[in-house]
Amino acid sequence: MSDLHRLSIRELSEGLAQAKFSSRELTEHYLKRIAKIDTQVQSYITVTAEQALAQADAADAAIKAGHATTLTGLPIAHKDIFCTQGIKTTAGSKMLDNFISPYDATVVAKGKAAGLVTLGKVNMDEFAMGSTSENPHFGSTKNPWNLEHVPGGSSGGSAAVVAADLAPFATGTDTGGSIRQPASFCGLTGLKPTYGRVSRFGMIAYASSMDQGGPMARSAEDCAYLMNVMAGHDAKDSTSVQKEVDDYVSNLNDTSVKGLRIGIPKQYFNVQGLDADVKARVEESLKKLEEMGAILVEINLNMTEAYVPTYYLIAPAEASSNLQRFDGVRYGYRCENPVDLMDLYKRSRSEGFGTEVQRRILIGTYALSAGYYDAYYVKAQKVRRLIQQDFLKAFENVDVIAAPSAPTTAYKIGANLSPTEMYLGDIYTLAVNLAGLPAINAPVGFDKNNLPVGLQLIGNYWSESQLLSVVHQYQQATDWHTKRAAIAEENA
Ligand code: GLN
To answer: Where are the alpha helices (DSSP H) in 329-369?
Structure first.
């Protein structure tokens, strides 16, 4: 079978259950595609072929013995920020380029327990800080829609593997948009769950109060299958919430678009730098939802201008604290021939971290330092609360809030935007993480250069089922999510 990579998660699950193909065949199919096509896309940091085939054989045995779960035998790619026992976990950094984790992240362990086959670990912005996956240590992953463009970031490898059909779905993480923006740039569906829904245990920390793992795939239905595996309380993560988990797959038709009140924030559509094509595609998708019965309601989110400065104080502050542990002593990269302890710290950290990571550590350290703490960090925390309240007020009147996921389509590789220009590209995603809300990206068409455009829907706390359901119904009525980049059509 040469077209296994065109099947949806449901079709793959049914095909395996009905013995139309085995997990070994499916896994070999993807490994072949990776060997041929990933030389161009450059999304995998590590391909775990041997382990994948062993897992596939075990999955085939389980299916034969009648012990299979829905996803037993399906291949997956993990963002290289999730610890994988016995397999290198780099977080996209030279600091960890020889780190073999002694344990699995909970998300990885849950995947294994569900019978998923790990194809490998995929590229990202270093320590998830960035929006392009132009990684200074592992190279730039390419956007499958146009290899001269970035796939977005930080979960750019996860987006690229799915868009090029080098994995049927992938895990990502989102601290300030890192699932939604690459999903938008690569024409995929990606869900950032409510903070606390998915365990952060074994997920290398960037900004702990905002980091959240989630699924990236072609459709809401595909994401729902992976969400069923990823979500849930974990005693090993004190911020994971003890709350019953929905069955995201069986809830896919539970929310009707008919009568759904969609808030359109006035401020979001007047943002300077919002590309005309992006605006047009997003508005067309909202029109379509309106035709399907949704009610569009103009709303105000008055704190919009505060999103970027607030996030870019809090996230670096947390990062500077989280990244202290990489000192070249206990683990992590260690410089050659240190003359004394201070030299060891200094050189290990300046050689092991790339420029952007160093910039954020410096910003964060400054914001937390005595004398500046109240003026920056404490102030940012207060503004964060106001941003959250702004959303809660909006949700008194609407069910979901619509926005672009990003003001533009995918940047050119090497565009070399200044840090502040880069940060402004996160305008539509950051507030969701500051408030801890769930949000989803859905593909809604293309710009004049045939690069994908994404619609973002933001929900109230714990509304993952609703978001998936709304996008699922939109995807039943449209076919943007079925479009494939030319490189995905190539056979191995
Ligand atoms: N682009 C944002 C940043 O650089 C978001 C990254 C993320 O969500 N991990 O911080």
So the answer is: 341-352, 355-368
Write out the H or E segment, with its range, that includes residue 213: strand 213-217
Catalytic status, residue 155: no
466-489 pLDDT, tens digit per residue, is: 999 999 999 999 999 999 999 999
Measured in whole angstroms, the distance separating CA 41 from the mean position of its chain's CA atoms is 18
CB count within 10 Å of CB 490 equals 13
Per-residue CA distances from 492 to 4, 28, 36, 56, 303 (Å): 11, 11, 6, 20, 49
What are the residue ranges of helices labelled H in 67-209?
106-113, 156-163, 180-186
**Residue 447 pLDDT > 90:** yes
Atom of ligand 1 nearest to the CA of 210: 8
The 10 Å CB-count burial string (b at 16+, else e) for 223-243 is: bbbbbbbbbbebeebeebbee
Ligand 1 atom having least distance to the Cα of 206: 9
309 burial (CB, 10 Å; 0-12 / 13-18 / 19+) is middle
For this structure, is 184 an active site residue? no
Helices 220-230 and 9-17 pack at an angle, to 10 degrees, of 70
CA of 306 to the centre of ligand 1 (A): 16
79 given a catalytic annotation: yes
What domains are there in the chain, each with its CATH number?
4-262+397-489 (3.90.1300.10)
- Give me the residue label for tokens 């191995």: 492
Is the pTM value of this prediction over 0.90? yes
Write out pLDDT tens, residues 148-161: 999 999 999 999 99
Residue type, 458: I
Query: Residues with beta carbon inside 6 Å of ligand 1?
Result: 128-131, 154, 174-178, 206, 315, 426
